[in-house]
Amino acid sequence: MEKKSYNVLAVYSLLSRAGREHFSGILDAMSEKRSWHLSTVRPGRFFTEKDFVNENGDPFDGFILTLPGTDKAMEMLAKSHKPTVLVNITDRRLCARTSAVSAVWLDNADVGRCAARHLLERGKYMSAGYVHEFRRPFWSEERMMAFRQAMRHGGCETSVFDDGPDFQSRLRRWVCDLPKPAAVMACSDMRAADVIEACRAEGIAVPAQVAVIGVDNDSAEHERCGMGISSVDNNMRLMGNRAVRELAFLFQHPKWKGRPHEVLIPVSQVITRESTARQDIGAQLVSTALSFIAANRMHRLSPADVVSQLGCSRQLADLRFVQSTGMTIHKAIEKARMEEVQRRILSGRSVNDIVKSMQFTSANQLYRIYKRHFGHTIRQAAL
Predict the structure, then answer these.
(1) CA 236 – CA 215 distance, rounded (Å)
(2) Position 148 pLDDT exceeds 70
(3) β-sheet bridge partners, residue 184
(4) Pairing of strands 269-271, 230-233
(5) CATH number for the domain including 155?
(6) How far is the C-alpha of 8 from the C-alpha of 39, rounded, in Å?
């Protein structure tokens, strides 16, 4: 027979946005549970064997755990056979139970795949990277594996950056070493902000040279790094909502036995912001190159000089130029310099003056390039 009321304990940390969103889902779903009386306690050393009764001394009928408590508390909970929902965590003692256990998991593989799909839709890359969470938790590993596989299918191998000493200095070297343009997924917005700050410290343009996506949709991290971070919204509110539904099921089926009931929560959406807003990578590369050429048209300029400003290969740069303008970088340099030569000739400047001021090797070189470009000689142009 179903009870008239239930005392429920939810074990939560509200330090992060993800935890707060998750708990918001609990509150949303609990608003319809008038017979449920909710109490909360922090995880870790704060959830102890003393927390099996509420402030009135009444025992809890069910538990929702997002993080474990003390070892003794978890042992007691496993032996109690109280209805328990594990959210994004596992415990061998609780999972060994054959009754009154449900597990709600974020689909971390879906998170990795969605991040890869988002990046691949925004252009071609020379490389990909993944930045783990500190101490490499299981969910970061799952996201990395799915991201790496999806990026490989998209033609990019993934370099993985891990936790360790001198995190910031190693991260800066790592982003420098990635072949550009690069696509980087960070396991969270916190780590994505670290990547963006490392790029900024090394003079690497985000997103033109390194596109960065995080997870959690945490605006506090966007403020920290001074850039809107594209982010996978991992549907934490739905997870909290589903945890309540799972506990309700366990209350309604007290004799239900079998393996823990498991629920996978898919990604909600990917939110596009500045860190991956690469218009067309070709358009950005060409725009940057043309600006550099225009600013340096008075100097003897080579395609290698231009490519060095772009952070990509000569092959990719020429490909983007042909796609966007119909000409190579070499032709773009010639066009900019010849237009300046024409302007100076029409204003009455002498050939010798133009050769000297624009660093041509000789008047003969200028004559030859001019005729090839315009189809007539300088003398004919001056008539």
Answers:
(1) 11
(2) yes
(3) 129, 212
(4) antiparallel
(5) 3.40.50.2300
(6) 6
Q: Which structure tokens are listed for 91?
A: 């415990």
The encoded tokens of residue 115 equal 């991040």
Asked whether residue 134 is domain-assigned, the answer is: yes
Sign, CA dihedral 114-119-125-128, equals: negative
Nearest to 38 by CA among 58, 68, 13, 14: 58
- What does the pLDDT look like over 202-244, one tens digit per residue? 988 899 889 999 999 888 898 888 889 999 998 899 999 999 9
In the DSSP assignment, the letter for residue 99 is B
Q: How much is the pLDDT for 382?
A: 60
Query: 129 and 167, same structural domain?
Result: yes
The answer on 132 and 95 residing in a single domain is no
Distances (CA, A) of 48 to 11, 33, 53, 62, 70: 11, 26, 11, 15, 6
Instruction: Match 């600013």 to its residue by tokens.
Output: 295
pTM for this structure? Answer: 0.69
Per-residue pLDDT reduced to its tens digit, 290-316: 888 988 999 999 999 998 887 677 887
Region 10-38 average pLDDT: 91
Q: Is 250 left (phi over 0), alpha (psi -120 to 50) or beta?
A: alpha
